[in-house]
């Protein structure tokens, strides 16, 4: 699918698939996580010690599902959560419950990232709705300053998915696995500076 779509289109396609077609949101999340995990497993990533930097929205939920999919394949993973579990979306709460079963460590977000060989950026996706400031900016700057290779989930965190403009601190990814369709930001010169290699995963979401 070469079409690039807007955030509004992505949300419409998502809602249409869940409400009209009847595919549950967690199924979409699982397919997204499977697609991204496959890129990590088949790409040039040192998976010795993987960090999933997860937000509390569904972008974070994707990342937490990726953590589990890597864990069951014997990969050492740690999840850093940017907010309180109580603030997590319904789907992300469910993904946290699942990784608790596997005893995958979930620790508060931190800037000490020196031990990690690959960092999965699952802080914000298409839900970024204001400039990145404060502790989020500190974390994103730490991710960009680390020696780890960075892999972004759906959209590099901090990048406006429509305009391709960084909204303050923005993750510079080695590669990005985006879901359903390419987003408008990936067509812009600015967006390309943050995205790295772009993969678009078919997750069963189609514009009507
Ligand atoms: N069909 C699909 O495309 C699928 C997409 N999935 C994933 O879901 C995210 C979108 O999830 P959503 O919960 O709507 O938003 P985010 O997780 O991107 O982030 C929202 C979260 O963050 C807060 N926030 C926004 N801007 C800021 C800021 N500058 N500072 C601090 N906090 C901020 C906001 O309030 C929310 O709480 C999509 O990208 C995909 O990764 C599905 O999982 C699979 C199907
Ligand atoms: K992201």
TrEMBL record:
Q: Catalytic activity annotated for this protein?
A: (6R)-NADPHX = (6S)-NADPHX; (6R)-NADHX = (6S)-NADHX
Query: Which residues bind K(+) per the record?
Result: 59, 121, 157
The keyword NADP appears for this protein: yes
Return the InterPro entries for the record. Answer: YjeF_N_dom (IPR004443), YjeF_N_dom_sf (IPR036652), YJEFN_prot_NAXE-like (IPR032976)
Return the SUPFAM superfamilies for the record.
YjeF N-terminal domain-like (SSF64153)
YjeF N-terminal domain mapped to chain residues: 10-208
Cofactor binding note: Binds 1 potassium ion per subunit.
For this chain, one GO molecular function annotation is:
metal ion binding
**Keyword terms:** Isomerase, Metal-binding, NAD, NADP, Nucleotide-binding, Potassium
Report whether Transmembrane helix shows up as a keyword of the record. Answer: no
Q: What broad class of enzyme is this?
A: isomerase
Residues involved in (6S)-NADPHX binding: 58-62, 125-131, 154
Its cofactor is: K(+)
Q: EC number(s)?
A: 5.1.99.6
Q: Which family does it belong to?
A: Belongs to the NnrE/AIBP family.
Job of this protein: Catalyzes the epimerization of the S- and R-forms of NAD(P)HX, a damaged form of NAD(P)H that is a result of enzymatic or heat-dependent hydration. This is a prerequisite for the S-specific NAD(P)H-hydrate dehydratase to allow the repair of both epimers of NAD(P)HX.
Q: Which HAMAP family match?
A: NADHX_epimerase
Stated name of the protein: NAD(P)H-hydrate epimerase
According to its UniProt entry, this protein's organism is Secundilactobacillus paracollinoides
Show the taxonomic lineage: Bacteria, Bacillati, Bacillota, Bacilli, Lactobacillales
What gene name does this entry carry? Answer: nnrE
């Amino acid at each position: 699918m070469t079409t690039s779509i807007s955030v509004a289109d992505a949300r419409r396609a998502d809602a249409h698939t869940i409400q009209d077609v009847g595919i549950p949101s967690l199924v979409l999340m699982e397919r997204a996580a499977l697609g991204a995990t496959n890129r990590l497993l088949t790409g040039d990533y040192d998976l010795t010690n993987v960090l999933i930097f997860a937000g509390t929205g569904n972008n974070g939920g994707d990342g937490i599902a990726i953590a589990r999919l890597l864990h069951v394949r014997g990969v050492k993973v740690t999840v850093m959560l940017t907010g309180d579990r109580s603030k997590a979306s319904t789907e992300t709460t469910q993904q946290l419950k699942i990784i608790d079963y596997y005893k995958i460590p979930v620790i508060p977000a931190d800037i000490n990232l020196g031990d990690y060989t690959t960092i999965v950026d699952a802080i914000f996706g298409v839900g970024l709705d204001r400039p990145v400031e404060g502790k989020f900016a500190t974390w994103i700057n730490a991710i960009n300053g680390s020696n780890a290779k960075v892999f972004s989930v759906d959209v590099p965190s901090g990048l406006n998915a429509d305009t391709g403009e960084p909204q303050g601190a923005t993750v510079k990814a080695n590669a990005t696995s985006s879901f359903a369709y390419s987003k408008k930001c990936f067509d812009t010169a600015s967006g390309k500076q943050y995205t790295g290699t772009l993969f678009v995963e078919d997750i069963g979401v189609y514009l009507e």
